[in-house]
Amino acid sequence: MSNQIFDVIIVGGGPIGLACGVEAQKQGLDYLILEKGALTNSIYNYPINMRFFSTSDRLEMAGIPFMSVENKPTRTEALEYYRRIYFHFKLKVNLYEGVKTLEKKDDNFLITTSKGSYQTRKNRARHRLLRFTKLDECPRRRTPKSDALLQRALALYRTKTSGSRRCELSGRCSFGMLEKRS
Question: What global pTM score does this model have?
């Protein structure tokens, strides 16, 4: 199993992962999106008749209009919209490929999945962006246990840094990291 090398590896093929892929593509970076399930898997697992709290204009990305029958879109409309984003930009997404391990070695990230192994290119990208979304595995409410799990994840990525890394905890069981390269 040989390592495939990319400038950016995005873990999670939900709306944020797709938006990161679109941005990486616009920046001319060699990227890959890894998704353990279907495209936008967490939305796919929502109740069938669920309606979003946000209006469709707030869910738009990359200048592509999100048209819905009513002001607030349904699960089905969102799935169709994100599928159109995927096809419009011809995003590089590996579906049904769950991440098994993620480690930092030297100045690279090494990722092993159920189907292969990948690594980031050393010092190629000015920004290296990884996105993790665990919505489909998280409890419905934030608990001390779920917060502790997220804090451990943040601590893992804050280790061995020289202050150049900014980690953020946002939303329900959502974790994102932006590492700024000089």
Answer: 0.70
**CB-based contacts of 117, cutoff 8 Å, min separation 6:** 1, 2, 3, 4, 110, 111
Instruction: Please give the domain boundaries of the chain with CATH numbers for all domains.
Output: 3-180 (3.50.50.60)
Helix (H) / strand (E) element for 50: namely none
Does residue 177 contact residue 130 with C-beta atoms inside 8 Å?
Answer: yes
- The alpha carbon of 137 is separated from its chain's Cα centroid by a whole number of angstroms, namely 14
Residue 176: half-sphere exposure toward Cβ, Cα within 13 Å: 12
Joined together, the tokens standing for residue 84 give: 């159109």
- Using CA atoms, how far apart are residues 168 and 176, in angstroms rounded to an integer? 6
Q: Is the Cβ–Cβ distance between 101 and 113 less than 8 Å?
A: no
What angle, rounded to 10 degrees, do the helices at 75-89 and 15-26 form? 20
Q: In which residue are the tokens 């873990």 written?
A: 11
Enumerate the H helices of 30-130 as residue ranges.
41-44, 56-59, 75-89
How far is residue 88's CA from residue 67's CA, in Å, rounded to a whole number? 15
- The predicted-structure confidence for 89-123, as pLDDT tens digits, reads as follows 999 999 999 888 888 777 778 889 989 999 887 65
Q: Maximum Cα–Cα distance for the chain, whole Å?
A: 51
